[in-house]
Amino acid sequence: MVTTSSESQLPSSPYRADCPTRRILDRIGDRWTVLIVGALWDGSARFSELRRRIEGVSQKMLTQTLRALERDGLVQRTVYPEVPVRVEYTLTEAGRTLREPLRALEEWSITHLSDVSASQKAYDRAAS
């Protein structure tokens, strides 16, 4: 997104520190959000299933991110009154609208991985 100086002065511009859209961008730009939305792409999942799908996420981060996504209306948490209690997470209608943009970012990162890695190595060599 390219912005002009006049656009950055609009009240709804994410380039302004006080703009509420910045909090939304922080949420959807978070790596755990991207991975959770991807893991819920095809439907509901339990917490333990999400943890297995998303290698490296801690229980604490998964819990915090799921709560934040639920608060933002992007994920729905459903508790089933069974013994033991079963809890499932699924994308809401708003959450499902994120799938395509985030999938595009995922595909971009896969496509450009070797270029980015080569640039990082070249930068690190030049810096040392």
Automatic annotation (TrEMBL):
For this UniProt entry, the molecular function terms from Gene Ontology, in alphabetical order, are:
DNA binding
Alphabetic keyword roster: DNA-binding, Transcription, Transcription regulation
The reply to whether DNA-binding figures as a keyword in the UniProt entry is yes
Which InterPro entries does the annotation name?
ArsR-like_HTH, HTH_HxlR, WH-like_DNA-bd_sf, WH_DNA-bd_sf
Fetch the Pfam families from UniProt: HxlR (PF01638)
Protease keyword on record? no
Q: Which PROSITE patterns match?
A: HTH_HXLR
SUPFAM superfamilies reported for this sequence: Winged helix' DNA-binding domain
HTH hxlR-type domain: from which residue to which, for each copy?
19-117
What is the protein's name according to its record?
A: Transcriptional regulator
Source organism of this protein record: Microbacterium protaetiae
